[in-house]
Amino acid sequence: MNQKNSLGLDICFKDLNDPIDLFKEWFNEAYKSELNDHNALALATSDKKGVPSVRMVLLKEYNKNGFVIYTNLESQKSNEIKINPVASMCFHWKSLLRQIRITGKILKVSDKEADVYYNSRDYLSKIGAWASKQSSKLEKREQLNEKIEEFKKKFPDKNNVPRPPHWSGWRLDPFRYEFWLDGKNRIHQRLIYLKLENGKWEKSLLSP
Questions:
Q1: SS3 state at 146
Q2: CA 57-139-40 angle, 5° bins
Q3: What value does the mean pLDDT take over residues 2-28?
Q4: Please, what is the end-to-end C-alpha distance for the chain in angstroms?
Q5: In sequence order, what DSSP letters do the residues of 36-55 get, joined into one string?
């Protein structure tokens, strides 16, 4: 007999009051079971007209304060975040038949945080952050290759490549989580957490 939690859901949903604790459980399981990039997520933003856009990015850090990604501050995603600082993330782990959707306000990380992560990157990734004008039109690939060579000459010391002023991170501070488990005959299991004004979380079920 399959074990259930107090809400009648599969035991994998557990009985936790803070969704970050359940996220950690599922995320750690995905680390063991996903073949590639268990930290990959779809990030959805929207422009000033409300037109949405979505792309795959990598989660670099998470804790009770939120979920952090890093990018060019002049990219499409960053420009849309500046216009509408509310975004949504979706993690999907096919190996587990699970997904997590997270929505929240999004703010830039501190310079200190960005510096720490940037300095952990490999040399060519740092050079790429300087060379690429992310999301801008590129006439031909050679232009990018030339820029890469240009910045390799400018920063030959692999241990001393400063962080570009246009490169940093964004932190999504959640106010809604949805945990989803695939079910037979499309009768899925769904659990949401909504953040209340007092900072506590309220749990409820959703129909599949």
A1: helix
A2: 5
A3: 96
A4: 22
A5: S-TTEEEEEEE-TT--EEEE
Is a pLDDT exceeding 90 seen at residue 2?
no
For the record, the structure tokens of 206 come out as: 């959703």
Express each pLDDT in 64-73 by its tens digit: 999 999 999 9
Greatest distance between any 2 Cα atoms in the chain: 64
H-helix segments, the chain? 19-33, 76-83, 111-120, 123-131, 141-154
Residues 120-144 pLDDT 10s: 999 999 999 999 988 888 889 999 9
Q: Which tokens hold the place of 101?
A: 């959707």
C-alpha separations of 119 from 40, 99, 124, 162 in Å: 21, 31, 12, 8
d(CA 140, CA 147): 12
Among 55, 121, 176, 186, the active-site one is 186
pLDDT at 1 over 70: no
Q: Which residues of 84-99 are buried (b: 16+ CB within 10 A; e: fewer)?
A: ebebbbbbbbeebebb
186 is catalytic: yes
Domains and CATH numbers, the chain: 11-121+166-206 (2.30.110.10)
Helix (H) or strand (E) holding 61: strand 61-63
Of the CA atoms within 13 Å of residue 144, those in its CB half-sphere come to: 12
Q: Which residues pair with 86 in a beta bridge?
A: 105
